[in-house]
Amino acid sequence: MTTASGELLPYEGASGGSTKQKQGMLKGLLRSQAFFAWMLIAPAALYLMMIVAWPLVETIRLSFTNANIGGESYIGTANYEKLLSSRKFSQTVSRTFYWMFLSVSFKIIFGLIGATLLNAAIPGRAIFRMLVMPPWIVPIAIGCFGWLWLYNGHFGIISGMLQYVGILDGPFEFLAYKNSAFYSAVITDVWVGLPMVTIFMLAAMQGVPRDLYEAAYVDGASRWYRFRRITIPQILPVIITMSILSIIWTFNSFEIIWILTEGGPRSATTTLIIDTYKMAIANFKFGQGAARAVIVVSLLSVFSLVYLFALHQIKKRFGAV
Amino acid sequence: MATLQLKNIVKSFGPTTVLKDVNLAIEDKEFVVFVGPSGCGKTTLLRIVAGLEEATQGSILIDDEDVSYAHPIDRGISMVFQSYALYPHLTVYENIAFPLRVAKRPEAEIKERVNKAASILQLEERLQFKPGQLSGGQRQRVAIGRSIVRNPKVFLFDEPLSNLDAALRGDMRVELSKLHRSLDTTMIYVTHDQVEAMTMADRIVVLNGGVVEQCGTPMDLYLHPRNKFVAGFIGHPKMNFIPAIVSRVEAHMLHVQLKDGGTMSIAIETTGLMAGDNVDVGIRPEHVQLDESGPISMEVDVLERLGASSIAYGKVQSNTTFCASLPGLADIKENSTINLSVKPEDAYVFNSKGEAQKRLTVLELA
């Protein structure tokens, strides 16, 4: 401990302590930085406890019951056993991962291409940069309704265009067939998520010192070589971060699928999160829904841990993100 | 073997012209330093030589071949950047090997050349380190190593020592001079520091406002600056200028009345001067002596004792700032007035246009 003047004092609690000393300790505690810090975050911490911790505990509890609109009773791990043995559920899990893989891959690949183009010294670059933003600015629901129209067989521009160029013979409802509905949902999800990935990658690219490119240019490195050996390694921390964050966001993505297809047709676009919602909210099977929610949370926790680990590794290797 | 010629180089960025008709011929194996204040166009000129900028007009010839539009790699140049431009994600070995990898050289050759460069630059122990783990001086050497492995015809250095501390800068100056001797190639070096220019250059090119003010050996520039700018730029501490009026003109002797009131006789070529002309008398701080009957009366504001010398900063009576470099133990104090004199052959004279009057040679002085 130190006095106000910075002089070192023996630790007060070390001698066992009289009442006076204990009072001193209490005062010290009240004055300590840690206590002050706890006081500052206490309201937020309490709020989080209320809206996150309690519902989480409640969800876990519900997952061991057969709770529905009529009541609930404890059934042990029956919900989980049912889920793990269900072929439909395993299909939903693999569909979710496939959905996630496609969407994240496209976001990262197109984000990289988009950022590279926006970073290039092309005329009207500022206009292109502005054009990237709308999917991000427009509320997701409104954007999705726009896509609903685009995918419509009779009024939609996509079907119309494809008929015009002769690829389609007649109107095609993109959201009415299993495969086309799934890939349409992927396209919309990429459309919504791409701007953020692009902007982050663009920011990372702009942070690469110009000298590095000039030095490589003087050494005879081609554009592609410079991109491969300088840009990619330099923005790797951002690529990793954005990939993991996109995995989490895409896994969690609910409103896009719900607005476009509500998980259909015939479950073709039902991901884990949609399945959970349908079970718990639409079918009122709270217990089974809660079991699914617990699995979703567990998977998300794994992703988050991977993210935190990656962030730590990136900081260790590159110094900053 | 590499000569370099710059012919009528003009460079404009929009309406701003930063280089105005620069002409220069650099000999084989010469160490040429471009020096000048910030914004004088020296780095732009180097970048034009490197091929990183295109000249608006004019041509660049390396070994008499016009390379004005050639890619840097085809010009046979290599460049060391002010920031070193090391690839932070690559090891020292890979940084040095980079140009060879670009050129798709065989692995054995890469290894041999990288190791050779590393041994020249004493980097053998650091080859597996990342740039972030190196000191400023070591990073600098890696950047030089990356240039060396290519065996370029011309080395270009863009203010390579400006990010180092003073002591390291001194060491690196010596190392670069040694490197020039051992590699025996043409080097062009850009700096704003006249000490670097004086110590390393075979020839200095002084640039100001996009124009070559003077080009010559360091001592040539020191002894015979063409104008006030060069005289003020070359030499440390900077040359003092005292306004004066010509009182009498002889063949090799100019008598002037200083604005202070003192009079001076200066052994100099007097062509073009007449009694009554306004001139500036240039006096290098290291050329003054304490002299009670000296014509220059100086009020000392600040005194820096450097050991070997004492630098006095102050004003002369014409309210012109003045600096005097005196012996280390000189008996002077701050806030006192001292009198100084200069030998007639040590002073410089600049006419009203700022052009230097020709100084007398040793023979003429004799």
Count of distinct strands of chain B? 20
Element-level helix/strand string of chain A:
HHHHHHHHHHHHHH
Give the percentage of residues in beta strands of chain A: under 5%
How much of the polypeptide of chain B forms β-strand, as a percent range?
Answer: 25-35%
Question: What does the largest sheet of chain A look like?
Answer: none
Q: So what's the overall shape of chain B?
A: elongated
Q: What would you say the CATH architecture of the largest domain in chain A is?
A: Orthogonal Bundle
Overview in brief:
Chain A is built from 14 helices and no strands.
Notes on the structure:
Chain A: The chain crosses the membrane at residues 35-57, 97-118, 130-151, 181-203, 235-260, 289-310. Chain A: Keywords: Cell membrane, Membrane, Transmembrane, Transmembrane helix, Transport. Chain A: It is a multi-pass membrane protein. Chain A: This is Inner membrane ABC transporter permease protein YcjO. The complex is a heterodimer of chains A (321) and B (366). Chain A is 73% helix and 0% strand. Chain A is mainly α and 321 residues long. In chain A, helix 4 (87-119) packs parallel to helix 9 and helix 13 packs antiparallel against helix 14 (286-318). With 366 residues, chain B is an alpha+beta fold. Chain B folds into two domains: 4-232, 3-Layer(aba) Sandwich (Rossmann fold); 238-365, RNA polymerase II/Efflux pump adaptor protein, barrel-sandwich hybrid domain (OB fold (Dihydrolipoamide Acetyltransferase, E2P)), CATH 2.40.50.100. Chain B contains ten helices and 20 strands. A six-stranded mixed β-sheet of chain B has the order 6-7-8-3-9-10, with helices on both faces. In chain B, strands 13-12-11-14-20 form a five-stranded antiparallel β-sheet. A five-stranded antiparallel β-sheet of chain B has the order 15-19-16-17-18, with no helix packed on it. Chain B is elongated, with a radius of gyration of 24 Å. Chain B starts with a strand and ends with a helix. Chains A and B meet through helix 10 and helix 11 of A and strand 6 and helix 3 of B.
